């Protein structure tokens, strides 16, 4: 045993005598001066230290019998977390969530999302996050729903992420009720930097003539649309302009949202399709905006032959009702032929030839 100043230093003896962790590390350095300090890691939290004689329940037993988890949930958590060093600590975490208004199902969701959550520090990690929501005035039901849908918020920085994000949303939407509508389905709004996405995008859309009321109404419905990079949002708007949608129209923001689906379609083709469809008087711009994939089909091989068939059938009173827009652009060539051409071959056979059936788009 190495000596220092004539005395023998034994780490185990030092530990039994109640030496603090720092003193213990220092003694180890005395024993082996050549050992790099970065390789010595004897720090431990006394509250989670497991004594050799202490009998700890399995994770599955703890969750099943103590907190009444479903067998499936308990098994899933146990497959990730081998054991609980301090069941009392984990128990206090789960009890706190229940006392805060979380249902058993919501507690399960949180733990299943990240089993290591059972080992977290209740006072430093969990309680401060819940308190932020409470301080903002959210109800217990809203807090439980938001956190259980996006447990990652419990791992966010209070000052660098949670408070700034909630402040942005509250300032934009005006009330906790509106903010909760978004967060109940899209809690991930709280884990990203809204100052770099949502804020500039909203300002840009407002400059395009879109009202804040419409933005607030659509945010819970199309949340991801508002979180694109600002330069991408500008491309969406440019594509909506190419479609010919008036910026003052309530349909403009829908057109911008559908833009990613038609990025590969040329402006010339978009205008031609819109012209052909609107000329019928049967469809309006909302049909096209709500069905952006309609702009990906061929004017010559799909729209013109079908519209000509339908116009002839309508003039000859063969149509009870003009087909909806979905039927016009989505229905396969084979089905369109069987429904609108085959029964009236003598009247429209020359318009919609067999060759048309074999063509796709």
Structure characterization notes:
With 361 residues, the chain is mostly helical. Among the domains are: 3-43, no CATH class; 196-260, no CATH class; 299-358, no CATH class. Helices cover 56% and strands 1% of the residues. It is built from 21 helices and two strands. It has helices at 11-16, 21-31, 59-66, 71-80, 87-99, 104-113, 122-135, 140-149, 158-173, 176-183, 198-207, 212-218, 230-242, 252-258, 267-279, 285-290, 299-315, 325-330, 333-341, 345-348, 354-358, and strands at residues 3-4, 7-8. A two-stranded antiparallel sheet has the order 1-2. Strand 1 and strand 2 (7-8) form a beta hairpin. Helix 4 runs parallel beside helix 6, helix 6 runs parallel beside helix 8 and helix 17 runs parallel beside helix 19 (333-341). The chain is elongated. Residues 1-53 have low confidence and may be disordered.
Defining traits:
361 residues, mainly alpha, two-stranded antiparallel sheet, 21 helices, disordered N terminus, transcription termination
